[in-house]
Automatic annotation (TrEMBL):
This is Trk system potassium uptake protein. Belongs to the TrkH potassium transport family. It is found in: Cell inner membrane; Cell membrane. One of its GO terms (cellular component) is plasma membrane. GO terms for molecular function: metal ion binding; potassium:chloride symporter activity.
Length: 480
């Protein structure tokens, strides 16, 4: 039987948090005398009322969650919060609910795909709401990736299981402490990013918005030109803090507690930085010799765009699809990569590629020495059979979702490039795709409604690591 009371109560807590954050854009609307005052007042009233009803109905002296509850709660929370968070958009100048939900899901999953244009003259309250959604989605995913997904053994993430990845009574205080420390570090990094952007030439409003969407690796901007509207120093600030957003936030927590930043001890972080430097330098070399650029410009453009795509931020700086076939193929691959587990980024994640390489290395040794016993380790931990099974299942489902989503998009009349890269960018939470329609120079507004709903679901699946949602459709999930 479904344990609905704790689910309702926790869902009510999330909706009440969303209600509280709606007052921030409401204040901006009042400050600037914008027409969105009514939109945010209605949205906060409806959301707050539903939050109170859920918390009242779900009140219980003892809230305990089993594995089934955790899977269901994780999927329900992101979907229902998106339904309510879309209200200010749909109440704003008549944006239809499909576009509102797409924009919200893209924001809260930190994907960064957008259907809106005219951002340079858009109301401050709407711009800050978009940025807040990405900022909240970023910290929400970090806590989920550190505390919940390893416990559920999603996609090989048991390797990152800590004492906080346990929902027993004794572990709850540790989980709460961990979430609090992660939130503090997230705020500190956001403030540092905001100050750096301001020094680099952005005004305070631009700096605040871009700091939130940079650390969350979301990619929403206050300009239709995205980061191309700002100075070269701002591009380097963005590159540095996007790369920081792609790191495991728990690493910063441990570094502060131990007063030592030992980044190079982690295989995932080491691989992440080596990968970024190698690809950025390779593309910079390509631009310098093939596109008549200075060394500084080639390195800036290559580094920014590589970090933006690998961390699944999706900021636009230049149309890299015009760099030639080699660059197009490179960026298509980079969409899949992702950065580190426990970061705000999407994608497959670096550690899964490293585990796959370790498994391949083990298999090759076994071919040469059939009677030998080889056991690969990752970060000092053995790669067990259940981790391998979970990883293989994740990769297969990941690719299957992309294929199915591509077929759906093609059936709506979209061209193959738009359909395939749209599916990839949704599931990997990158933002822009390739091609003239949804590439770095375009947006998703011209897509049919069914394509937008399909992509929104794809974003949610990608953000929740596929398996978290897929398990809900297995008949055995509902049998006990």
């Amino acid at each position: 039987m479904l344990n609905y009371r704790p689910l309702l109560f926790i869902l009510g807590v999330f909706l009440s948090t969303l209600t509280a954050f709606m007052f921030i854009p409401l204040l901006f609307a009042l400050l600037y005398g914008e027409e969105t005052v009514g939109a945010f007042m209605i949205a906060s009233l409806v959301t707050g009322t539903c939050a109170s009803a859920c918390m009242h109905q779900g009140q219980s002296e003892n809230i305990r969650l089993n594995i089934r509850d955790m899977f269901l709660l994780t999927s329900l929370t992101w979907f229902i919060v998106s339904l309510f968070a879309a209200m200010p958009f749909t109440l704003y100048h008549g944006i239809n609910y499909t576009d509102a939900f797409f924009e919200t899901m893209s924001g809260i999953t930190t994907t960064g795909s957008t259907v809106l244009s005219g951002l340079d003259t858009m109301d401050h309250s709407i711009l800050i709401w978009r940025s807040l959604l990405q900022w909240l989605g970023g910290i929400g995913f970090i806590v989920m990736a550190v505390a919940i997904l390893p416990f559920l053994n999603v996609g090989g993430m048991r390797l990152f299981r800590t004492e906080s990845s346990d929902w027993s009574d004794k572990a709850v205080p540790r989980t709460q402490d961990m979430a609090k420390h992660l939130f503090y570090v997230y705020i500190i990094l956001t403030v540092c990013c905001c100050l750096a952007y301001h020094v680099a030439g952005m005004n305070w409003f631009q700096a605040i918005n871009h700091a939130m969407t940079t650390l969350s690796t979301g990619g929403y901007s206050t300009s239709d030109s995205s980061m191309a509207a700002f100075s070269k120093p701002a591009h380097w600030v963005g590159t540095i803090f996007m790369a920081a957003g792609g790191l495991p936030l728990l690493m910063f927590v441990h570094s502060l507690s131990q007063r030592s930043l030992r980044i190079w001890d982690d295989a995932q972080v080491k691989g992440y930085f080596i990968f970024l430097v190698f690809v950025s330098c390779s593309l910079a070399f390509w631009l310098y010799h093939g596109h008549d650029m200075t060394t500084a410009d080639a390195l800036r453009l290559a580094s920014f765009n590589v970090v933006s795509v690998v961390t699944t931020t999706g900021y636009g700086l230049t149309d890299y699809t015009a760099w030639g076939a080699v660059a197009n193929v490179a960026f298509l691959f980079l969409m899949f990569a992702g950065s580190c587990s426990g970061s705000t980024s999407g994608g497959i994640k670096i550690f899964r590629f490293q585990i796959a390489i370790a498994i391949m290395r083990e298999q090759l040794k076994q071919q040469f020495h059939p009677n030998g016993i080889f056991k690969e380790r990752y970060n000092g931990r053995p790669i067990t059979e259940d981790i391998v099974r979970s990883l293989v299942t994740f990769i297969l489902l990941f690719m299957l979702v992309i294929v199915l989503l591509s077929v759906i998009l093609v059936s709506t009349g979209l061209d193959p490039t738009t359909s395939f890269t749209g599916a990839v960018t949704a599931v990997t939470n990158v933002g822009p795709g390739l091609g003239p329609v949804i590439g770095p120079a375009g947006n998703f507004s011209s897509l049919p409604d069914i394509a937008k709903w399909s992509l929104a679901i794809g974003m949610l699946l990608g953000r929740l690591e596929i398996l978290t949602v897929a398990v809900l459709f297995h008949p055995n999930f509902w049998k006990y």
